[in-house]
Design brief:
Order of helices and strands of chain A: HHEHEHHHHH
Number of strands of chain B: 0
Helix content of chain B: over 70%
Shape of chain A: flat
Structural class of chain B: mainly alpha
Number of strands of chain A: 2
Strand content of chain B: under 5%
Structural class of chain A: mainly alpha
CATH architecture of chain B: Orthogonal Bundle
Distance between the termini of chain B: 52 Å
Largest sheet of chain A: 2 strands, antiparallel
Strand content of chain A: under 5%
Oligomer: heterodimer
Radius of gyration of chain B: 17 Å
CATH topology of chain B: Arp2/3 complex 21 kDa subunit ARPC3
Number of domains of chain A: 2
Number of helices of chain A: 8
Order of helices and strands of chain B: HHHHHHH
Distance between the termini of chain A: 15 Å
Shape of chain B: globular
Number of domains of chain B: 1
Chain lengths: 235, 206
């Protein structure tokens, strides 16, 4: 659908549908606010960048920022011009991106990561990568917690970091104790896995099955896709 | 066949070549459970280390490539120095890519070739130089190579064919240059930071 539809209005309607699905998942207000803010920035950035970088023909110049004959920068860039068709193209592409991103977020919000890993394994992703992903997901909250603990301890000892240089210094001060502590934990997990006889293969309590609901959803998706293709080519 | 499909075929062939050369030089040793868990840890660390930059410095327009490539390369290279085996780089990069897709973006196989290329380039570099970031120069060259290949592939192949977003050649060259410099700097930082970590890892009773 995202690829097939190409008019700004249809893509906007698709975006609204994706956004409604996202809202139906009941995300917290702060999450919605952050998503809207990021989308607004990305929308403007994509429109402006594609307005300047658009290279398909025909294109109508709206504003010439830099002439190609004006000095070394002009020669290097070949001139910087804002094109009308580029702005429209940027709008269309950002609607496509947002629709895809929102639908991906719906999948991520409505499915446990372990179920997604299980799905990947069913698709043929090797067992070892599946195991690695499971361990990575398990590590994430522990790492965030550990990073927070280290930063609080450093602040209690009087460390105050601000600005760009502070950002880099903070990274340096955080990463060494964080990695050393995590490596200790990694060794513990590896020992526990080996002691329990882990051989590279895992068994799951719950397997994935293709149910009637999956079949119905697949059928609905095929029907909607067919309708979209027919609509696109009947125009 | 469009450029994206051609790139997938080329990356696949490149991967096969890397595997065959590794096999010929007897560089392929299996990864044990401990290695796999350490690699998994670095996949998570890459995700966590990038977050402050993703929501902070990376938002500054025009220099986001430079800002993001520094922590990414630094953490990646620490991981490679801790598990200096063939396959580590590919597994960390691929694992990180899959992890971020699982957690925030949703699974999209179209981005997998990008991760594979990033890994294969480093694997080939390690085979050719015969060193897993053992010297500062080796690390900086590996970082710059990674930056060059990855950002060129992103701006010339991935973004135009997956997002349908195009960039002017001058913008691509400036961003790639930033990626090369940022990755080189990240490699230097990673090399310096990995020294105390490796010491603690080997002798400190971790």
């Amino acid at each position: 659908m995202i690829v097939i539809l190409d008019s700004p209005l249809n893509l906007f309607l698709l975006f609204l549908a994706a956004f409604a699905c996202f809202l139906a998942m009941g995300p917290p207000a702060s999450y919605i606010k952050a998503a809207l803010k990021i989308m607004a920035i990305a929308f403007l950035a994509t429109m402006i960048s594609q307005g300047f970088f658009y290279y398909f023909e025909p294109r109508t110049p709206l504003l010439v920022l830099l002439n190609k004959d004006s000095g070394p920068i002009g020669r290097f860039t070949g001139g910087i011009t804002l094109y009308k068709e580029g702005l429209t193209y940027g709008m269309i592409q950002s609607m496509r991106l947002f629709s895809a991103a929102l639908m991906s977020m719906v999948v991520v919000m409505s499915t446990y990561p372990s179920d997604l890993v299980l799905g990947l394994k069913k698709l043929g992703v090797p067992e070892k990568i599946g195991f690695m992903l499971t361990v990575s997901i398990r590590f994430l909250p522990a790492l965030a917690e550990e990073a927070k603990r280290i930063m609080i301890a450093q602040r209690l000892r009087g460390l105050r970091l601000k600005g760009v240089r502070g950002n880099f210094k903070g990274f340096r001060y955080l990463i060494i104790p964080l990695i050393i502590d995590s490596l200790r934990q990694a060794r513990r997990i590896a020992l526990a896995a080996e002691v329990r006889g882990y051989t590279g293969k895992r068994t799951e309590i719950r397997g994935l099955k293709f149910t009637r609901l999956d079949g119905a959803l697949l059928l609905a998706a095929i029907v909607i896709l067919g309708a979209a293709i027919k609509y696109r080519f009947s125009l | 066949m469009n450029a994206f499909l051609i790139s997938i075929v080329l990356i696949f062939i490149f991967g096969v070549v890397v595997f065959c050369v590794g096999l010929k030089h007897r560089l392929i040793h299996g990864l044990n459970t401990h290695d796999l868990i350490t690699i998994a840890l670095f996949c998570s660390l890459l995700y966590v280390a990038g977050l402050p930059f993703k929501f902070g410095l990376s938002r500054v327009p025009f220099i986001h490539t430079f800002a993001y490539s520094i922590p990414f390369t630094a953490v990646l290279f620490i991981g490679i120095r801790i598990v200096p085996k063939m396959g580590t780089a590919t597994l960390i990069i691929l694992g990180h890519s899959l992890l971020s897709q699982l957690i925030s973006r949703g699974i999209n196989p179209l981005w997998w070739p990008y991760a594979f290329l990033a890994g294969f380039v480093l694997e080939m570099y390690f085979i050719i130089t015969g060193s897993y970031l053992e010297t500062r120069l080796n690390a900086v060259c590996a970082g710059c190579l990674r930056g060059l290949v990855i950002y060129l592939y992103f701006y010339l192949v991935s973004a135009p064919y997956i997002w349908h977003i195009h960039y002017a050649p001058w913008y691509v060259s400036i961003q790639t240059l930033q990626g090369v410099v940022g990755s080189g700097l990240g490699a230097l930082i990673g090399f310096a930071l990995s020294k105390p970590i490796i010491k603690a890892y080997r002798h400190g009773g971790i």
